[in-house]
Amino acid sequence: MASSTPSSRPCAAMEKTGQWLFSQDIPSDIIVQVGDDTFRLHKFMLVANSGYIRRKVMESDRANLGSIDLSDVPGGAEVFEMAAKFCYGVNFEISVHNVAALRCAAEYLQMTEDYSRGNLAERAEEFINQAAVKTLPGAVALLRSCEGPLLPMAEEVRIVQRSVDAISLKACNEANIPTRSPPDWWAGELAALAPASLQKILSAMKSRGAAPKSLAAAVVVYAEKSLAELLPLSSGAPAPNHSGDARIRLRGPLESLVHVLPPHPDAPLPVGFICCLLRAALFLEASAACRRELEQRASASLDQATVADLLTVSLDFAGERIVDLDSARRIVASFAEREARGGGGALYGRGGGVACCSAAVQKVARTVDGFVGEIATDEELSVSKFAGIAGALPKSARRFDDDLYRAVDIYLKAHPGLDEIEREKVCSVMDPLKLSYEARLHASQNKRLPLQIVLHALYYDQLKLRSGIDGEAAAGALGVTLGREEGPKADVSLIRENEALRSELAKMKMYVSELQRGGGEGSGVKMGSKKTSFFSSVSRRLGKLNPFKQGSKDTSNIDDGVGVDVTKPRRRRFSIS
């Protein structure tokens, strides 16, 4: 069977040609070879319309040219057969799917007006101008037919440019005044195109003044249709289960789409959509450049992200297992670096002080706190990864650390085997002096927290009692940012008191460290103020607030000097216990 195949192909081609040759009485005098197909035709019919074949016949060294190879003709044997039918005057159908190939073949064979009036090139041009580009689906089909083997000739005869112009014009009109339902139907038509063609259309739409919202909608709909199996945007969507070969096949279209995404100012894409693309890139093990581009885009819109968006990047498709936290950390860190450079609100003030953060920074801080609270229960989450994400933003990004304290407490409870140093590293991401009263009260009785953190919380209350001011003013005295505008002249006495209190706090830390080295353990250390001169420099109220007095962490009888009933119900839950 294999040996009979080559000989049967010419026979089949000749039989097919014989069906439309005008006469079988005149023998053919030229054989045209197009790939594996052979056509027995007549010279005088071909040279009358094709300048290329006429020149080949005239330039031949032989007096009687008997064969010619046209394997390079655009469109191959199928398109050449239609061109030959045109030379013989045989009718055939021209459509939006083959007109581009016919026009390119006419250009290659030089079937133009220079050799015959009403030649194939003119007929193809008439169809393109009067039918193909008149509708959006027709223009899209025409542009799609130009992709692949017809390039670059399709660009040389300006079929690609005319298609792009027609599509961009009609897409802009539909985006402004929809004529069908749903309103973004025009964007769905573009899904049949290659990413390179989409890029040309988006650039043309931008030059026509299309709104960024329209450009973003086109990209989103295009991705949802062309990469539907990789972008389960709805929750609970089934996870893709692709083999290695399937991943390689899908990796190319994804990387091509990311490469042609319009710049962020031109088409601000939804951050949730970017996170879905990033998850797909991680799943397909896309190139580092592809992942980096998506991370930068997610970082640029992080103030619009939700906790679910960050979880999309970090969890697998089923949402059950953490597969990547480095991307989420880099996204948050990149946002912090951009803000620190003055992109959307100062993070640092002069002289080591803290300046007021923008609303975007504070919103991102709340999102990050909620995110780390969600992943804190993962038993395989290491201390370094938890601290790396929770601490990616500077401490000045938060007015209060209550949400972050909750995440820390959840992590400590989910990882009971941590030693003192590891627990201190976990707690280092938050500032105990920026906890609300309820959170400080909870922290003072939290056995999971390191001793230093408890002392910080108690010392804050001592500062309030000594200063006789409210909580926010006391936090300001310790240099904590509460988002208020302060004048250029600071209160000199308040600054001095702040430095003195910091010095006392440092001495207290040293004292506690000495007690621990001397054999004191946890809450079993009894701090008698009469045994050392250190407590003579600290207010007696601190001794009353000390929960370690008498070796107990029960704070039900604490008197904070302002008549606050500590047994009142808490307004918010800060622990998972």
Question: Structural class, judged by helices and strands?
Answer: mainly alpha
What's the rounded overall pLDDT mean? 78
Please report the total strand number as a whole number.
3
Strands of the widest sheet, in order across it, are: 2-1-3
Helix amount, in percent?
40-55%
Strand content: under 5%
Low-confidence stretches: 1-11, 233-237, 344-355, 470-491, 520-577
* Main sheet characteristics: 3 strands, mixed
* Global geometry: elongated
Number of helices: 26
**Topology as a string of helices (H) and strands (E):** HEEHHEHHHHHHHHHHHHHHHHHHHHHHH
* Ends distance: 78 Å
Radius of gyration: 38 Å
Task: Describe this structure as you would to a colleague.
Keywords: Phosphoprotein, Ubl conjugation pathway. It comes from Musa troglodytarum (fe'i banana). Residues 28-96 form the BTB domain. This is NPH3 family. Belongs to the NPH3 family. Mean pLDDT is 78; it is low at 1-11, 233-237, 344-355, 470-491 and 520-577. A three-stranded mixed β-sheet has the order 2-1-3. Helix content is 53%, strand content 2%. Strand 1 (30-34) and strand 2 (37-41) form a beta hairpin. By secondary structure, the protein is mainly α. Helix 9 crosses helix 11 (195-207) and helix 14 (271-283) runs antiparallel to helix 15 (288-300). The chain is built from 26 helices and three strands.
Helix-strand layout with pairing:
Blueprint lengths: L4 H14 L11 E5 L2 E5 L1 H5 L3 H9 L7 E3 L6 H13 L10 H11 L10 H11 L5 H11 L6 H4 L2 H18 L8 H5 L5 H13 L4 H15 L17 H16 L11 H13 L4 H13 L6 H8 L11 H15 L18 H17 L7 H8 L11 H13 L5 H8 L9 H8 L6 H17 L3 H7 L14 H26 L22 H6 L32
Parallel strand pairs: 1-3
Antiparallel strand pairs: 1-2
Helix pairs in contact: 4-5, 5-6, 7-9, 9-11, 11-12, 13-14, 14-15, 14-16, 15-17, 16-18, 18-20, 19-21, 22-23, 23-25
Keywords: Phosphoprotein, Ubl conjugation pathway
InterPro entries: BTB/POZ_dom (IPR000210), NPH3/RPT2-like (IPR043454), NPH3_dom (IPR027356), SKP1/BTB/POZ_sf (IPR011333)
Protein name: NPH3 family
